[in-house]
Design goal:
Length: 217
């Protein structure tokens, strides 16, 4: 059972150190008006075709970096909805380049899968068949949505979801902690219902930096 759970989580999460993925090439832009509704979802602003999010980070040398995410595909898989994000990153003022899983970096999440069971963060290469299989599998743990009554929720394999507040706005954060030897081994992505992505860091972000949106943006 433990082996099955580990394998299922490996499909879902982007933090398996040493993974690789080709940079995005020609992408098919897909919008699906028949997406299943999740009216109370904190990810509502992410499930919008062409939604764009710019996050900023500063490295140890004081250099500012930009991480840009854009939703280029929405589709339904069974009773779940899937948003595909493409990522670009670079120093502020320089040309941005596609973010890949090269050289041990673990950027993401690339595909957000939201179903009645909860939320999954999946790789750019996950196919609809793989997503459907994960949704059917009883060993697949999916992030539940935290609430005022249950602001912190822990799952297997170091996964957690929590509700916090920034500038009076509820912010939902989804984190994964992996055992060494990855560096960094923990990744977290945070969203707000009205603004979408508000921060991403650790193993999910280029160079492990913490990228955040400016308050009010």
């Amino acid at each position: 059972m433990a082996a099955m759970k580990t394998r299922a989580l490996g499909v879902l999460l982007l933090v398996a150190c040493g993974g690789s993925s080709a940079a995005p090439g020609k992408r098919q832009r897909v919008g699906n008006a028949a997406l299943p509704p999740f009216p109370d979802s904190p990810w509502s602003a992410v499930f919008v075709l062409d939604a764009r999010f710019d996050l900023m980070a500063t490295d140890a040398l004081g250099t500012a970096h930009v991480l840009h995410a854009e939703v280029d595909q929405l589709r339904a898989v069974g009773d779940a909805r899937v948003a595909r994000l493409v990522w670009e990153a670079g120093a502020q003022g320089a040309a941005l380049a596609p973010v890949t899983l090269a050289a041990g970096a673990q950027p993401g999440p690339h595909q957000i899968v939201e179903s009645p069971r909860g939320l999954a963060l999946m790789s750019a290469t996950a196919t609809d068949d793989e997503i459907a299989a994960a949704l059917r599998s009883p060993t697949t743990w999916m992030f539940p949505t935290p609430s005022r009554e249950r602001p912190e929720l822990d799952g297997p394999e170091g996964q957690s979801a929590r509700l916090g507040w920034r500038d009076g706005e509820p912010v939902y954060c989804y984190a994964v902690e992996q055992p060494a030897p990855c560096a960094p081994c923990g990744g977290e992505v945070c969203v707000a219902a009205e603004r979408g992505l508000v921060s991403i860091g650790g193993a999910f972000a280029p160079d492990g930096l913490l990228y955040e949106r400016a308050p009010g943006e």
